[in-house]
# Entry
Amino acid sequence: MLQRILLSRRRLLGSLLTGMALLQTTAIARAFSSFRSVNGEIAGWERELRVLVADLALDRSIGQAYLEKFPDDASIDRLQARLFGAGIPNPPGTVRALVLAAEQEDYRVGRLVCLNGWLLSRTSVTVAALSVMMAEAPAA
Amino acid sequence: MILDLEQAESGAALSTDICIIGAGAAGIAIAREFIDTRYDVCLLESGGKSFETETQNLYVAKNVGVQRLPHDETRLRYFGGTTNHWSGHCSPFEEEDFKRRDWVPHSGWPLERAELMPFYSRAYRLCELDAKPFEADWPEVARRKIPGMNADTLRQYFLQYSSPTRFGPAYETDLQSARNIRVVLHANVTDIVANGDAKAIDRIKIRTLGGRSGEIRARQVVLCCGGIENARLLLLSNGIVKKGLGNQRDVVGRYFMDHPFGGVGLVQRLGNAPFENFFGSQDIDGRRFYFGLALTPAVQRRERVLGCGIQFWPNHEYRPDSLTDTEDQTKSAFDLAVFEFNRRWHNLKRKVWGPEPSEGSAFFDVMAVAEQAPNPESRISLDSGRDELGLNRARVDWRLTSIDRETRKSVVRAVAAEFGRLGLGQVRMSDWLRDGRGLSGNIEDYNHHMGTTRMSDDPKFGVVDRNCQVHDLANLYVAGSSVFPTSGFANPTLTIVALALRLSDHLKQTT
# Structure
């Protein structure tokens, strides 16, 4: 499972630095493959999202509960769109700030999702669902 | 002076200017206003100066609606009435409580709060409190504000604690020494008799449990027996008007309300969010206060729900990892995952409240004490069972409606959104509320009996008018929470006393 592999941000960053060879053999690699841009490189913002997911060390149950409740969202593209709309975060280094701002905005406008009684921001559970989908993404 | 009907000759007849039936908060407040005036006042009390089981048993009622606490335990029937065990919470009703709201059927008082404010000031003093109802009156209270709270969603409220004033012992000496006041103990009113054309009260029949009886003739009669007994006595007084006094239009006893109370959710505290500074009982400047949150009028209007106070009770027992039931284990595993999820999200953000506390509860129950929507099907009527005086007991059919339920959901959503935004905590809605289960069994009554002789300018929808006079009866008035057209969520005693003082002034002008 993703969270068992991505134990820490340090490990993820280490993985990124040691290169794509390692990534190709792990769940991370499978997930990353679905995020590759046309030229085969991993976009910076996608890496940032990965780091965020790693920092949260998400338990699958939250993302799964979300996907059970909203099965139409069970695709990485769909979840990405939920997070960022049609645009790609720019400039680099803004993903975390964007996600946290979106989370705050959810609370401000009452955009909450009820999972087993817990009222959580739509953004936070979208990230949780994305982590599940990324872990399950087939190899490229 | 204080007399005891048990010690008097049977068949006693008294004549007075003003006869007040019931020596609780309202009755004593009114009687005090007449001390050393030109009026002769008779204050009737069913009980003695202290608790007596036989008299208390007269309060036994039959409950047929939503489950309630026993009515012979939640009320007290002796001098001072239920103030002999009240908690002392004092707060005026909200300004909005008096207004008509198009999403709340039968809402709206025939008076505004501004009209009641001078009487609230006097009521505070009777409850032995400073007449300072607002935050601006208490600089220390104002400093307890939650920084950044969205005033459009939730607002902080506070109430003061009375000592609590036991109206019997507190004002017994005043009444005892007053030359124009007669307090008559053990005087159970068995019938309020209207004159032949049912336009006024002719006399009041009284009797002791020992069998002594008497009659009182008064220029003005004020009923002050509480939210259930006021209606019961009017319904029992059916010698001339067969449906009961003031009940030609079948309104007496209807619209029975309480403050439905109970848990609606759980909060996981984030960081060291200082719940203890923001909520609960606190001593400030030598006074005791209670702090909570309330749904704002804007939210009520937007979501078409009722007023509601929100309290946060530390839950030290909550241990999701200690549950044994399989279903609960599944739930608790999810809860544990969410707890960690919430912590990590919180740590990603600015740590608004600093590191987690080393002590204090990590969880708080979200308790809602709400206004109840006026509902004509929620009612007090007469039961076939009879008490020791041979009078029909009260039959209590407390009914709640969908708006009472939706209000609780709004509360949880509002708290979840605002606490999430402020980084105070994450909220889980109670299973019963989420599953669509009924309110019955998941809420309790708050022993606040209201609405059964409600105030309205239109006799079709009310028993008394804006002056608390029973429609079409020239000299019968009602005091107490039974005249409330809507209930707000504030504890009723201060408003009961304020309305009683207002009625006293009216009686002085008209008697």
Observations:
- Chain A is about 65% helix and 5% strand.
- Residues 109 and 121 of chain A are 10 Å apart (CA to CA).
